[in-house]
Amino acid sequence: MTINRGDFDYWIVKLDSVGKKVWQESFGGSGTDYALSVRENQRGYIDVAGNSNSLDGEVGSSIDGDRYWVLRLKYASNGAYDCGVERWDVKTLSDGDTSLIDFSTIVPSSVTEQSQMPRQSIGQTDPRYATERTVYKINGLLTDFKREADDHDLHLVIHDALTDSVMIIEIPDSACSAVASTSRGHLFAIARQWVHDNVGNPTTAFKTLSPPQPITITGVGFWDFAHGQRGLAANAREIHPVLTIEDWTGNAVAETSSPDDFTIDVFPNPTQRNILTVSLQSKHDIGIVAVSVVDVAGRVVVPRKSHQLYEGGNTMSVYVDTAKLAAGNYFVKIVAGGRLMKKMFVVGK
């Protein structure tokens, strides 16, 4: 049997004509979940009906006490577990309009920018929209992750390092039949393995990272439905699917000047709770430079101090005392010449 989530769970097993197991999966929460009836409907979905008193897990209900719970699954014509349902072909790049995506052009974006896009009203079977044909590159702070029990997607929650914006990014399971048949199924497998190796083993229960892990992802924009999922952007915008994922190197995440105009470096990074050196260089006279340190939630942990930076390519070193900071990720916040810049650094244990 697969993972047990509490007392009793739904346990669904697909057998072939000779009784050999094709796939299995368990669903439920920490309470008691009884599956009482199962059928295949005319669209090829498997409907499993029963009752549950769980308030978490796949059930996720806010209604206390016993209630009916109906679960819908899908399998492919070859009997393999097909994982997802609503707009599954769009989510997995197995729809016909995938050919309209320019995978060679990657557009820099941010969690905030994605979450501020005008919301798209969609139907459960709608084809790919024009705003779902772009590949984006986004830096963010990974705070929560899990493996969805129904479609096996890895559900990751990322936050913008500069604002309070949040969004969901998802990585499909390349073992699902629709995913395995796509030209980029191997990328999903690599991305999922990266999460396993660098973040942790995803289960069907959310895990929260403390401190959050800075990551850089590329992926295709997607519009989802609001159904109580953790980390949903206000406009239900997601990156689905994620194509690549890696450590975010901590370069400046927001700046209005070019690197040749104004450069920042911090060292040692990671630092072991001592003096952090912030190196500033400019080719122009920008006057006063304000330097402070904020945590990943944007709270000021080292108050702002002002410094004078002159033109001519001169380099100024600003020293920041990090002795009182707990281990974790922080940002040096720099305001200069009307521009806001941040540089990430890590305080070691």
What are the main properties of this structure?
349 residues; mainly beta; OB fold (Dihydrolipoamide Acetyltransferase, E2P); Immunoglobulin-like; 3 domains; 5-stranded mixed β-barrel; 4-stranded antiparallel β-sheet; 18 strands; 8% helix; elongated
Structural summary, described in words:
- The chain is mostly beta strands and 349 residues long.
- It folds into 3 domains: 10-74, no CATH class; 88-247, Beta Barrel (OB fold (Dihydrolipoamide Acetyltransferase, E2P)); 262-347, Sandwich (Immunoglobulin-like), CATH 2.60.40.
- Helices cover 8% and strands 44% of the residues.
- It is built from 4 helices and 18 strands.
- It has helices spanning 88-91, 111-115, 177-180, 185-198; strands at 10-15, 21-27, 33-40, 45-52, 67-74, 106-109, 135-147, 154-159, 166-171, 207-223, 237-247, 262-267, 275-282, 287-295, 300-309, 315-321, 328-336, 339-347.
- Strands 7-8-9-11-10 form a 5-stranded mixed barrel. The protein has a 4-stranded antiparallel sheet with strand order 15-14-17-18, with no helix packed on it. It has a 3-stranded antiparallel sheet with strand order 3-4-5, with no helix packed on it.
- Strand 3 (33-40) and strand 4 form a beta hairpin.
- The longest helix is centred in the middle third of the chain and has 14 residues, at 185-198.
- The two termini are 39 Å apart.
